[in-house]
Amino acid sequence: MRKLYVYDHCPFCIKARMIFGLKNIPVELVVLQNDDEATPIGMIGQKMLPILEENGHYMGESLDIIAHIDREGTPLLTVPARPEISDWISRSSSLLYRQFLPRAAAAPFPEFSTTSGRAYFIRKKEASTGPFCEIFNEGTEALLPLNAVLEDLASLLPEPSALQGPLSYDDIHLFAHLHSFSIIKGLTYPAAVENYRQALSKRSGIPLLDSVAV
Ligand SMILES: N[C@@H](CCC(=O)N[C@@H](CS)C(=O)NCC(=O)O)C(=O)O
Fold it and tell me: What Pfam families does the annotation carry (predicted)?
């Protein structure tokens, strides 16, 4: 069977997992320790997941994996992408990742099951954000702009019935982004956003992170 090497915190890995779940194509998930550099470098020459292993070959890059799997059987991602969705993702990304990274670092993800795996992530990410404790100290004030962007998203979403049929690459990017949001406790999801993230979680078989949110 094919193997997909992932980290549970990684939005690009969520994207790659989605296409298998949405198309009901089996794949074995393998979670690497976050400080395991040798395994991914041995496969694709860089320390980067997701990686798909198929018939002894390795493929990196989430979008290449998605396109490859979507070519199998009937393509699913046939609805055209809308620029307003990629604009919204770009607009909310830096707000999201500032709050996401310290929470991910504290979460019970399997890639952090060793102390050195977790320390590797903290060291690497704090180099760009500054100390995680300072971000936690920003408290609930820091969540207000995230609630505001979630409000903006509500009016951009497709009708719920559209989520039963063919999908768009927008849905891959947007669900992965909302999956990252779900590790942040105390956000307010407008009904349309809540319905969207629950519908895609169910259809892809990828649980949201609400139960481990902090
Ligand atoms: N362009 C790549 C980006 C993947 C990516 O950035 N993966 C991150 C995890 S979210 C990674 O493996 N970074 C190296 C590390 O965590 O040390 C893709 O779409 O697959």
Answer: Glutaredoxin2_C, GST_N_3
39, with CB counted inside 10 A (0-12, 13-18, 19+), is: middle
**What are 18-46's pLDDT values in tens digits?**
999 999 999 999 999 999 999 999 999 99
CA of 110 to the centre of ligand 1 (A): 16
Q: Ligand 1 in contact with 10 (CB < 6 A)?
A: yes
Identify the residue whose C-alpha is closest to ligand 1 atom 14: 48
Q: What is the largest CA-CA distance in the chain?
A: 50
pLDDT of 127-156, one tens digit each? Answer: 999 999 999 999 999 999 999 999 999 999
Give all domains of the chain, ordered by start, each with its CATH number.
3-70 (3.40.30.10), 83-212 (1.20.1050.10)
Distance (angstroms) between ligand 1 centre and the Cα of 61 equals 8
Residue 124 Cα: closest atom of ligand 1:
17
Tell me the C-alpha distance between 147 and 170, whole Å: 21
